[in-house]
Amino acid sequence: MTCPSKQPRSPLASLSKSLTRWAAPVSVALISTLAFTLATYQIGFVYGQDFPAHLRWAQRLAEDGRVYLPHYTYQQLVVIVRALLPFNAANLFQEGLATWLAERSYKIAGLMVIAIFYALTALILQPRLARAVRSIHAHKAELISVLLTLSLMLVTPITLFTLADHRLYLGYIGINVYHNPTVTMLKPLALWLFWAVVACLDGETPRLNIFLLTALTIFSTLTKPNFSLALLPALMSLMIFRWRKKQPAHWLYLGSGFILPAVLVLAYQYWYGYSAADTTQVVLAPLKEMHFYAPSGLGWMFLLSIVFPLSVLILRFRQVLRDQGLLIAWGAFLVSAAMTYLLAEEGGREYNLNFQWGAQVSLFVIFIQSLLLLIRQWRPVQLDAQPHLPRWQKIFLSVTYGLHVISGIIWYLAEVLQPRQWWF
Q1: DSSP letters of 50-119?
Q2: pLDDT digits (tens, 9 = 90+) for 245-284
Q3: Could you tell me the pTM of the whole model?
Q4: Given the DSSP bridges, would you call strands 281-284 and 343-346 parallel, antiparallel or unpaired?
Q5: Which strand (E) or helix (H) includes residue 344?
């Protein structure tokens, strides 16, 4: 008895499957790019927060080759994108249009770079969330992953209690902000770097060869050093613990691909930013910078920044202890939070809160890892594979996450409609 031969798939069916597979990442990239670039345009270009200074440094870099910051990849990319844009061709459509565009060329290039990195963040998050969600809703995994991706790019501290005071940012550990170009660039790079490092500790085959990991470490640290500065001690502490327990890990890969290049770049940045400067220095000044913007309530504002991941940590403590990613993310956050509340700068950078960026990005990573942990335990395919979440925990954690998202939507609308008027 012969088995019937399998019918070849028609080109139309193959095209339909390909379009379905790409619909989710393309749609989430487009939505996030349009929505969040609009917020950045309002606060960064219309109001003029942070971006004008970075664009001036980019212009000076292009004109005299001088680097003004120890983290300068945003300026470099702005110069490259501007050089690639065909402004002169605009005169083919309207006389004088090329001149008008050239006068705004750095703004256009700066906004395009940010748009690319918003899309990149979405494209990194959505596939990983989709793979996790398929264990719960296989048929709706793409839609759910798109919604979760957008929610993660919106979440902020729960600011509903200070809404009447127009205080939605300063005093909290902000998670998603739209006014700083380098932290927007850092997020997708930090996620790539974080997941590459965690995979090695989990015993997986390295996802990047050692040269790519080294390049990613250097590029992300030169974009903004805060995440590497926080990840480094957290990772080394866990590596020492695993080494004493004789647990396997890709030691050489982590040491030469992340630790060594991170230490070298951070040392250069410290020298360039502080030792080479006559006036600027880092000082131990507990709560000095945070108290300047929030004279009271810092304790509960800190707790309101981490309600969801802290709830996951408390309610799923045993599972968190077995999750290498969450352990490292929490370690990095604690290191960066200590820097935020204990350190300050003097000599021209007072009250710039430059140490808070590491806490913001680390907290962003914790939200992602906490959400992935909950998805795996929401309705496991094999009952023995993951502990099942009780119904009351599902409700409670959904409400806490929802409050972060609602606060994030309010923050987004505030930045679009009334830029910087709801900071503190």
Answers
A1: SHHHHHHHHHHHHHH----SS--HHHHHHHHHHHHS-GGGGGGTSTTHHHHHHHTHHHHHHHHHHHHHHH
A2: 887 778 888 999 999 999 999 999 999 888 765 567 899 9
A3: 0.93
A4: antiparallel
A5: strand 343-346
